[in-house]
Amino acid sequence: MEFSGYWEYSVDDRNRVPIPPFYREAFGMKALLVPGPDRVIEIYNEEGWEERAAPLKKLPMTNPQARKKVRAFYANTAPVVPDGQGRLVIPPRFLQYAGIGDDRKVVVAGRRNCLEIWNKAAWDEQLFELDEDSFDILNDPEIFAEPEMGVEAE
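The structure corresponding to this sequence follows.
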């Protein structure tokens, strides 16, 4: 499943954030939270998690640097169970990492194989940076073209 769209929510007093209704079934009884780039919280279902973790499963555990990377990734992952209303309890360390403070306003945004929880102010700031010209990338046929055989991607 691919995730798209975005929704504005508030973190409640029990640190719960809803999964957007359209996607609740995709998570079933388990979601995996991971600190992501751009200070977001990534939310994976089983399918997305397998894709995200696949490269780490190939690293040799005999290599000390590989072990550190794998350990850091898995140790900083939090499995959570959605409640009956499709809400996830977000551990405080994740809220702190994402800069979700006193106003508790967040955006849940789709990003292909996962959902992201953004601090609303950070989301608004990055949206503001997308001026009209930035959306031209969506109409650039070269961005979406298959790479030619024998030509390495840059």
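The beta strands are 6-10, 16-18, 31-36, 40-44, 78-80, 87-89, 105-111, 114-119.
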